[in-house]
Prior knowledge:
Layout: H1 3-17, H2 21-34, H3 40-49, H4 55-72, H5 84-100, H6 103-120
Amino acid sequence: ADPAHMAQLAQLLTQTVQGNTQSMQAATQQLRTAEVQPGFGLMLLELLRGSSIDAGARQAGAIYFKNYIKRQWSVEGAGGGIPASDRQAIKQHILSLMLQAPKLVQVQLAAGLEEISLVDYPTEWES
């Protein structure tokens, strides 16, 4: 992913947990707009994988990822949702990320994985 986009994403996530209510709401609104773009979930996972990110932003990113999955995974069609190629890649990478992530991030990723499995299992789930 583009380093400039990654830096912007990290900054927005940090703003959702730090600062005044107005900047928190503005950051959340920007994230909501971005989350319907293809590749958003993968970029979020990539950010969570990085160790250079601030712990607060990483935790915020993990929570956002879980909520993003809950909002978008079961959505189909032009109104939103996650493209099939992104879904495949997310399922491919989430477990390995969980194994190396800090405990607070693991918990959120586990909740996201649970949502994915509830929606996809057994028809869309490859062992």
